[in-house]
């Protein structure tokens, strides 16, 4: 497996653990001193980042984050990666829906345990928020069955 | 071409043949004893699965199935694959629209004719159904031009 | 890096430069005699194509084009590629929103400067247009902040 393939697998794992809310495993995707900047929401350590996700993405918040078009450059034990994010967030209790896209600019570092995210950050190209109430027929189900959306 | 690349190509072909409704070719993606479980809709043979698709996905039903983030493991002549599905279904005659996501957990087997799907199945992370009537300005066109949506 | 990987990188660059409206760099993705056919909108030269994009996709038009499922075949210095497009377009001044999908059928050529697009074209599988006015709560932000959508 090449470095680029390993880094892609790391990113796919990160996205899967994010959307399935497996926070302890999610934390293992980062180097010890990793930082993040999600469109201006910044984190100076993996602990801070993971705590934020755990608090703000409880079971009732539904997210989908898919990444596309990996453009990865490896130089020795470091790498940079550009990815095209397409994401959706639903907060059924608030009839809230968000859809958007962004370009990730990541940095990765090779550690004795394999490649890890050293920095992840994105800048939005667009973001659309709507209310599920705008679509009276909307029925939303999460992984565990119907949500609270009426 | 590596095994992983071959399996990715198989999956891409499967999705393309599904959304373009080429059922005879779609059938060739499966091993003879393949099974499937699409979020609880189960099939115990490729024939059963293909017949179901042919019946339930006629020309007027529009589908989009894209898969992302392949996490594939090959051990000898067998392989497993996890994919992130994002899908949309439109049934214009009923003003019905569905969007959702799921994680596929597939099994593949190497045959004399190449890699084939031995089992495919997914579990939904979310699913949103709406009525096109909720958006009075909606105009939907399928591959063959405008659909029946008024 | 293999030819297939180089061609994938070319396509990702093309999509990124399209959605970030970097037209001079976008132009470098094509061979000198490249042609295009986007669902019937045809271009007989890269200059014609790039001029069209520059004129019709000014800053206030928001686009997202993601491509998936690369099926690429290389024969000597030429290649063909099939991709699954998922795209969105927003024209906030007109409350206009479009979403659709298509299969790209591209041709690529190896030049002294690397692989270039010799022909790109797609046929839509579906296209849905709506008005943002159908969703009164809709708030759309582009890369530079809030758009004009009220």
Summarize this structure as a short list of keywords or feature phrases.
homotrimer; 150 residues; alpha+beta; Nuclear Transport Factor 2, Chain: A; six-stranded mixed sheet; two-stranded antiparallel ribbon; 3 helices; 8 strands; elongated
What does this structure look like?
The first copy, chain A, has 150 residues and is of the alpha+beta class. Chain A is built from three helices and eight strands. Chain A has helices spanning 3-19, 23-27, 46-56, and strands at residues 30-38, 41-43, 62-75, 78-91, 96-111, 114-131, 139-142, 145-146. A six-stranded mixed β-sheet of chain A has the order 2-1-6-5-4-3. In chain A, strands 7-8 form a two-stranded antiparallel sheet. In chain A, a hairpin with a 2-residue loop joins β1 (30-38) and β2 (41-43). The first copy, chain A, is elongated, with a radius of gyration of 16 Å. The relative contact order of chain A is 0.19. β7 (139-142) of chain A pairs antiparallel with β6 of chain B, so a sheet runs across the interface.
Strand order, sheet with most strands of chain A? 2-1-6-5-4-3
Number of domains of chain A: 1
* Overall geometry of chain A: elongated
- Rounded to an integer, what's the Rg of chain A over CA atoms? 16 Å
What is the helix tally of chain A? 3
- Give the SSE string of chain A: HHEEHEEEEEE
Structural class of chain A: alpha+beta
Most extensive protein-chain contact, per-chain counts: A-B, 25 and 21 residues
CATH class identity of chain A: Alpha Beta
